[in-house]
Amino acid sequence: FGNESNNVLVNEAALPTLGIQKMEDVLNKKMSFWGDTFNVVGVVKNYRQESPKSAYDGHIFRYDDWWNGFYSLKVQSANITKTIAHIEDNWRDVFGEQPLDFFFLDDFYERQYKSEMNFGSIFGLFSILAIIVACLGLFGLASFMTSIRIKEVSVRKVLGASFSSLLALMTKDFLSLIVIAILISVPVSWWLMSSWLNNFANRINLSWDLFTIPAIILIAISVITVSYHTVKTALLNPADRLKDE
Q1: What is the DSSP string of 108-172?
Q2: Are 35 and 66 contacting, i.e. CB atoms less than 8 angstroms apart?
Q3: Helices 105-148 and 150-158: angle between axes, nearest 10 degrees
Q4: What is the pLDDT of residues 157-210, one digit of tens each?
Q5: What 3-state DSSP class applies to 59?
Q6: pTM over the 0.70 mark
C-alpha cells in the first residue's frame, strides 16, 4: 500500500468546511488531526448513506490496516445464493468459526426510506377512498338533480335541444363547483407539499403538472359520473314524462 497511511480522501461536502472552492485546490494540501498530518490526494463525490432528510456530511477517508468495521463487497445479483456460499467458505478459511454477519446495502438504504414509502402508500390509499366516496356522493346528487329536472329536460328536448346542449345544461352546475373546489385545493396542496418537502435536504421542485393533471382527471371522472344520469334522462321519451301535464 506504499505510503497510503499518510494520505486521505475528502468528499465534496467537506470542501466548504475546509474553505476550498475548487476541487483542484485541495489536492496535496496538508491536514492535521488526531495528532498526525495527512496529505489530501483526492476528492470523492457525495453519496447518500443516511436518511434523505439529512444533508450530505463532510467526510475524510483514511487508510487503516486494522480489520474492524465492515467489508464492502460488490457482487452480481444473478446467483446470489451461490455467491454468499462462496463468501462464507472464504470467511471460514480466514476467521474460522467466527460467525459471518452480513446485510445487503440496498436493503439497509430501503429501511431508511421506509417511513416515506409507507406514508406515500397510506396517503395514496386514503386519496383513492376519498375519490370513491366523493364520486358516490356526486352520483347520488346527480341522480337527485336529474329526477327533479327531468320534465325540464323533456320540454327542452321537445323544443329541439340537442344532446350536447342537454349534457352541458346538466353538468355545468356540477363543473362550476368542482372548478371552485380545485381552485381552493391547489394552493392548499401546494403549501402542504412544500412544507413536507422542506424536511428533506435534497428535494424536487413542485411543477404545475403535478396539480393540473390530477385536476383534469378529477374533472373527467366528475363528467363521466354526472353524464350517466344525463344520458339516461336524455334518452327517455318526452311523451312518457309530459303526458300528465
Answers
A1: HHHHHHHHHHHHHHHHHHHHHHHHHHHHHHHHHHHHHHHHHSHHHHHHHHHTT--HHHHHHHHHH
A2: no
A3: 70
A4: 777 777 777 777 777 777 888 889 889 999 999 999 898 888 887 778 888 888
A5: coil
A6: no
